[in-house]
Write a structure and sequence with these properties.
By secondary structure, this protein is an alpha+beta fold. The chain contains 6 helices and 4 strands, in the order H-E-H-E-H-E-E-H-H-H.
């Protein structure tokens, strides 16, 4: 019985420690792993992605991209996420970024925009993703990722400030 009590007390102490230090765990352990993976994902996209056409380049310039010629679109069956990393998978699910009944249609990783094959990346939707590229270009992928995940946890997807800015582009550039 003493062994069971010791294990139970250790488990409770561990849970309390995780609760108290969860922000440190996320910012110092999990986010650096995701960010490193994100930079690798961008690099792969830059190698295999399709450059913007003339109209898309004009759109990117109008939105304010400094280097629109760097943008690449990568069409995939599923927008990438490091599902094989259990801790990152749990983090993504906890903030509503991935999970059951959540289908990510497109996502920017630096200058690489990954979009599902079955997702029509029309002008307003492309504008939305280009705004995410702009957000990264104004700062960097690491800072934007940290802000976005924090905002998702605090406000939810529809009210997260970076998404609100991108949704404005959907409206502005609708045909």
């Amino acid at each position: 019985m003493t062994l069971v009590k010791s294990i139970f007390v250790s488990l409770i102490i561990s849970l309390i420690g995780l609760t108290v230090f969860y922000e440190d765990i996320i910012s110092k352990i999990l986010l650096p792993q995701y960010i490193e993976w994100g930079y690798e994902t961008e690099a792969q996209g830059l190698k295999v992605g399709i450059p913007l056409d003339e109209e898309e380049l004009k759109l990117a310039k109008h939105i304010g991209i400094k280097s629109p010629e760097k943008i690449r679109i990568v069409y995939v069956d599923e927008v990438p996420f490091p599902h094989d990393n259990f801790a990152l998978k749990m983090l993504g699910e906890s903030v509503g970024f991935i999970g059951d009944n959540i289908t990510v249609q497109a996502q920017a990783f630096g200058y690489s925009i990954y979009a599902r094959n079955d997702y029509k990346l029309d002008r307003p939707r492309l504008a939305h993703e280009i705004v995410h590229v702009l957000q990264i270009e104004r700062s960097n992928f690491a800072d934007v990722t940290f802000q976005h995940l924090s905002d998702l946890a605090k406000y939810g997807y529809d009210k997260a400030p970076l998404e609100v800015e991108a949704f404005e582009a959907n409206k502005k550039y609708a045909d």
